[in-house]
Amino acid sequence: MVALIIILLVIWLILAILGFAVKGLLWLAILGIVFFIITAIVGWLRRGASRN
Question: Is 24 helix (H, G, I), strand (E, B) or coil?
Fold first, then answer.
Protein backbone atom coordinates (compact mmCIF):
# COMPACT_ATOMS: atom_id res chain seq x y z
CA MET A 1 0.00 0.00 0.00
CA VAL A 2 2.80 2.39 0.84
CA ALA A 3 4.50 1.69 -2.49
CA LEU A 4 1.29 2.51 -4.36
CA ILE A 5 0.93 5.83 -2.55
CA ILE A 6 4.55 6.73 -3.25
CA ILE A 7 4.14 5.87 -6.94
CA LEU A 8 0.99 7.99 -7.15
CA LEU A 9 2.72 10.91 -5.42
CA VAL A 10 5.59 10.73 -7.90
CA ILE A 11 3.17 10.61 -10.86
CA TRP A 12 1.21 13.64 -9.59
CA LEU A 13 4.45 15.53 -8.98
CA ILE A 14 5.68 14.82 -12.51
CA LEU A 15 2.34 15.96 -13.96
CA ALA A 16 2.46 19.18 -11.93
CA ILE A 17 6.01 19.95 -13.08
CA LEU A 18 5.09 19.14 -16.68
CA GLY A 19 2.06 21.42 -16.39
CA PHE A 20 4.22 24.33 -15.21
CA ALA A 21 6.89 23.64 -17.85
CA VAL A 22 4.55 23.57 -20.85
CA LYS A 23 2.95 26.95 -21.42
CA GLY A 24 -0.63 25.88 -22.16
CA LEU A 25 -0.91 23.15 -19.54
CA LEU A 26 -1.45 25.16 -16.36
CA TRP A 27 -4.61 23.13 -15.76
CA LEU A 28 -2.47 20.00 -15.64
CA ALA A 29 -0.24 21.56 -12.99
CA ILE A 30 -3.24 22.49 -10.86
CA LEU A 31 -4.75 19.04 -11.28
CA GLY A 32 -1.41 17.40 -10.37
CA ILE A 33 -1.10 19.52 -7.22
CA VAL A 34 -4.67 18.75 -6.15
CA PHE A 35 -4.22 15.00 -6.70
CA PHE A 36 -0.85 15.12 -4.90
CA ILE A 37 -2.43 16.74 -1.85
CA ILE A 38 -5.41 14.35 -1.83
CA THR A 39 -3.14 11.29 -2.17
CA ALA A 40 -0.85 12.55 0.61
CA ILE A 41 -3.81 13.10 2.95
CA VAL A 42 -5.31 9.68 2.21
CA GLY A 43 -1.93 8.01 2.71
CA TRP A 44 -1.39 9.85 5.99
CA LEU A 45 -4.86 8.92 7.27
CA ARG A 46 -4.49 5.25 6.30
CA ARG A 47 -1.06 5.10 7.95
CA GLY A 48 -2.54 6.52 11.14
CA ALA A 49 -5.50 4.14 11.02
CA SER A 50 -3.27 1.07 10.65
CA ARG A 51 -1.39 1.93 13.85
CA ASN A 52 -4.50 1.65 16.05
Answer: coil
Q: Judge contact between 5 and 43, C-beta under 8 A.
A: yes
Q: What is the CA radius of gyration of the chain?
A: 13
Arithmetic mean of pLDDT, 8-14: 94
Residue type, 29: A
How far apart CA 41 and CA 47 sit, in angstroms, is 10
- Helix and strand counts by DSSP (H, E) for the chain: 2, 0
**Rounded Cα–Cα distance for residues 3 and 13 (Å):** 15
Specify the pTM. 0.80
- 29 neighbors 19 (Cβ within 8 angstroms): yes
